[in-house]
Design goal:
This protein is mainly alpha-helical. It is 63% helix and 0% strand.
């Protein structure tokens, strides 16, 4: 008797899985993959750049917060000192030039001005310079002007 040959592949007879050969990708597939990779790379770069900017702003705001806290503590100390009788007397003498009834005021010509309280010096340094010909800005606009004035100069 004649034996019939099986129409199956030899791989199927041995129990091995068939080998699948991959063909080269089409040019348009390579282009799409390249453009997708380029877009993803630019997005990662953009997000990293934004992250760095936000971290820098955060550091600046933390520094500004620390400065405001120091000013707050200095002003609180000055207010506490000014609420006592000795503090009121000191302020009247230094800032208003008042003297007691039994004292004789003496003014030296050409002497340096009296030193201001440290909290007042800090507050004046923190304020933006105001010109004499312009009306002062409201506090909200003055805070914004600090950031936008460099754009117009």
């Amino acid at each position: 008797m004649l034996r019939r040959r099986s129409r199956r592949r030899p791989e199927a007879q041995t129990g091995q899985p068939p080998v699948v050969r991959a063909s080269a990708p089409a040019p348009h597939q390579v282009l799409v993959f390249f453009l997708a990779a380029l877009w993803m790379g630019t997005q990662v770069f953009r997000l990293g750049y934004q992250e760095i900017n936000l971290l820098q702003r955060s550091r600046l705001l933390e520094q500004e917060k620390a400065d405001v806290a120091a000013l707050h503590h200095a002003l609180r100390a000055e207010i506490a000192a000014a609420t006592t009788n000795a503090g009121v007397e000191r302020l009247a003498r230094e800032q208003l030039g008042f003297v007691m009834a039994e004292e004789i005021p003496v003014k030296a010509v050409g002497s340096a001005a009296l030193a201001e309280a440290p909290a007042v010096q800090i507050a004046r340094a923190a304020r933006p310079a105001e010109s004499s010909d312009k009306a002062p800005l409201p506090p909200a606009l003055a805070a914004l002007a600090k950031y936008f004035m460099p754009l117009w100069r």
